[in-house]
Amino acid sequence: MTSTESSLFTALGPHSDPDDSELELDCWFNEEFKFILLPVSYAVVFVLGLGLNALTTWLFLFCLRPWDATATYMFHLALSDTLYVLSLPTLVYYYAARNHWPFGTGLCKFIRFLFYWNLYCSVLFLTCIGVHRYLGICHPLRVLRWGCPRLAGLLCLAVWLVVAGFLVPNLFFVTTSPKGDIILCHDTTRPEEFDHYVHFSLAVMGLLFGVPCLVTLVCYALMAQRLYRPLPGAAQSSSRLRSLRAIAVVLTVFAVCFVPFHITRTVYYMARLLEADCWVLNIVNMVCKVTRPLASANSCLDPVLYLLTGDKYRRQLRQLCRAGRPRLPTAASSLVLVSLPEDSSCRWTATPQDGGLGR
């Protein structure tokens, strides 16, 4: 440990955040709340997320086939969430043990990598679903060309690989370091590389969150406009209201899980780079820690979205609850984040033979 780091730990005090020990300011952080908030929230997300996503994955694999493009995106979203929640027990131990990591540097790198891999894969899969639903509702004929399940599967594979490629530098930045009797698993990097890490992190956030977020907002706004606008011959049924509510739910969950985490993280990094006052750093640091579980909660909320907006998902789940076993495999074409029943607004913009593409 260098003399700079030694003096830094002393300046920050015994209750400062070792994950952020690269902050070279005479600032004392009291983060006792973190050692309760993070283990408890991660444990809850693990229990709920593992159960919900395991059930969802099983239903997709054995009860909801063949898949359409939207179901393909949803399956990969559930798979991403499942992989993430399996990493949480190590973080529960780490924060419950007050930032002690006994699992080695390699696993520290992998766990931190897995968090961001899941985060940005989830963002992009939700974006793919939004674009697909936009085409199905606003440009149904284009779905014939771009909405086939095979193309969706290739796009999902591209998402996995592209996000992993963008995050490879994270494997080099993240590391462990000793501090007294404990070993820290840094969420960022070493003190001397922090400036480089911030530039890398901001670039990743812009490309893998900022751009997809904007695309998702535009797609759902255009869908809401189409669904809300009365068209000639359109029945004033409750299906349009259900679809609008589904859009609202998706955007709300997206905003709650992803937006606060990225905003507070960006503000925190910039405050440290600009060497803001200690009280400002304390406030931003606390808010940033509070929003971290919200990003993890996405793994629990995605299956709830399937339940709220997928007709056949609900039928299979009810069948499991009533009879203990599902029906025969059913096509998952109505498993969509914007649910349009057979007699609904697909007919506003599509010919009868194309109506199934709008659901």
From TrEMBL:
* Pfam families, sorted: 7tm_1
InterPro entries linked: GPCR_Rhodpsn, GPCR_Rhodpsn_7TM, P2Y4
Gene3D superfamilies cross-referenced by the UniProt entry: Rhodopsin 7-helix transmembrane proteins
- How does the protein's chain sit in the membrane according to the entry? Multi-pass membrane protein
Q: Which residues form a coiled coil?
A: none
Supply one GO CC term from the record.
plasma membrane
Q: Where in the cell is it found?
A: Cell membrane
Q: Does the keyword Methyltransferase apply?
A: no
G-protein coupled receptors family 1 profile domain location: 52-306
**Annotated spans, Disordered:** 1-20
Keyword terms: Cell membrane, Disulfide bond, G-protein coupled receptor, Membrane, Receptor, Transducer, Transmembrane, Transmembrane helix
Biological process GO terms, please?
transepithelial chloride transport
Which molecular function term from Gene Ontology is one that the record holds?
G protein-coupled purinergic nucleotide receptor activity
Q: Which spans are transmembrane here?
A: 40-61, 73-95, 115-135, 147-168, 197-223, 244-263
Chief site of localization: membrane
The family line of this record is: Belongs to the G-protein coupled receptor 1 family.
PANTHER family, alphabetized: P2Y PURINOCEPTOR 4, PURINOCEPTOR-RELATED G-PROTEIN COUPLED RECEPTOR
This protein's name: P2Y purinoceptor 4
UniProt organism field: Lipotes vexillifer
